[in-house]
Design a protein that fits this description.
The protein has helices spanning 10-18, 32-36, 44-56, 68-72, 78-108, 112-137, 145-151, 159-186, 199-219, 228-247, 251-256, 261-276, 289-311, 313-335; strands at residues 27-29, 154-156, 282-284, 339-341. It has a domain at 10-226. It is mainly alpha-helical and 354 residues long. Helix 8 (159-186) runs parallel beside helix 10.
Length: 354
């Protein structure tokens, strides 16, 4: 059962973008002084090479619409269109969230390494957000990003939480986009919108952003040791669970591409898990039947919460509370599920080879 609203006007699009529920992208702020104090000297050689790649800007001409773009837009089944527009608005919000955060860090620090990195990443995210907003404009649904920046609620995260969460969101973003791109590369007849043709080079931006945070984390090894490993486990589970629940509100979107939502998610998890071994000393056993059963239970609980909200009244509120508690218990069980441990490789960076 979908928790989406039908996006039929710019006001609807902005309402979805401003949502702050558990599975919606958020806007973040952080401790700028702590960001300013970061030291990347332990990974200087890899860092300088990465900065040269950003400077080279191999995607500087990628986010331009070709004359054929509008001609490729075709009518969709109403339910597919509803899910696709929800996908676009959530993707826009996520990309714009990164742009805002990176710009704010850049403005509030003097550390030359981090300032340069944040400038490059904000540049990339600005292009991504603008490109998605152009696609929404084709439907008369462009979001006022200036108003969104001023009115959407912000969540404070300590820098280390930013590192864990953003590293994972960038890497899982790569895995999501490349999986879709490869599927539609094999089955171009299922490419129901032209934006998917941009995904391969687009997701390489996401991959490089994740590499940046991998280097920051490896340059500060205490963030990968001791009690911080428990935070890593938390963010791994939170990101995977959020994706699983959100993607299962869009079954027709994946079906239209020839994908099954569950199979797609586990393909993405496999790629993300393999990549994240560059920096995280633990990984989740996402292929264990009991772990998969727990994610599926979270999905069913999310559907039950939606039904309770729609029911309303005292009974609806009581049901919401009961299902919310069930969600917390299920998440806790998944959190304490055994993880896999592994040594970190000597070389931090990996190539986007999927």
């Amino acid at each position: 059962m979908s928790a989406q609203i039908a996006i039929q006007s710019p006001a609807d699009a902005e309402r979805v973008a401003k949502a702050n529920d558990l599975i919606s992208p958020r806007f973040y702020t952080t401790d700028f002084a702590a960001m300013d104090a970061l030291d990347v000297s332990p990974v200087r050689a890899e860092w300088d090479k990465m900065m040269a790649e950003y400077e080279g800007d191999n995607n500087h001409d990628h986010f331009q619409r070709t004359p054929e773009f509008a001609a490729e837009i075709r009518e969709m089944d109403p339910e597919l269109k509803k899910e696709f527009l929800d996908f676009l608005v959530n993707s826009l919000t996520s990309e714009f969230s990164g742009q805002i955060l990176y710009n704010e860090i850049r403005k509030h620090i003097t550390n030359p390494d981090i300032k340069q990195l944040m400038s490059f990443m904000a540049r990339d995210e600005s292009r991504h957000a603008g490109f998605i907003n152009q696609a929404l404009r084709d439907y008369g649904l462009a979001v006022d990003l200036g108003d969104l920046k001023k009115t959407k609620a912000y969540t404070y995260f300590k820098p280390k939480y930013i590192f864990y969460a953003t590293y994972l969101s960038e890497k899982i973003g790569y895995a999501r986009y490349i999986t879709i791109f490869r599927q539609l590369e094999k089955h171009p007849e299922k490419r129901f919108h032209p934006i998917f043709r941009w995904f391969e080079r687009w997701c390489n931006d996401e991959f490089r952003h994740g590499e940046s945070f991998a280097l920051i984390l490896r340059a500060n090894p205490k963030l990968l040791q001791g009690l911080n490993v428990y935070w890593i486990r938390f963010f791994l589970l939170a990101v995977y669970a959020t994706m699983y629940v959100r993607d299962h509100t869009r079954p027709m979107l994946h079906n239209a591409m020839g994908l099954d939502s569950t199979d797609y998610d586990y393909r993405v998890f496999d790629i993300t898990t393999e990549i994240s071994k560059q920096v995280f000393p633990v990984s989740l056993d996402t292929n264990h039947p009991s772990f998969r059963a727990g994610l599926e239970r979270l999905h069913r609980i999310s559907d039950a919460v939606t039904r309770a909200k729609e029911r309303g009244g005292i009974i609806g509120k009581l049901k919401q509370a009961g299902w919310a508690l069930a969600g917390v218990v299920t998440f806790a069980r998944l959190y304490f599920f055994p993880v896999k441990h592994h040594a970190l490789p000597e070389q931090v960076r990996v190539a986007p080879s999927w």
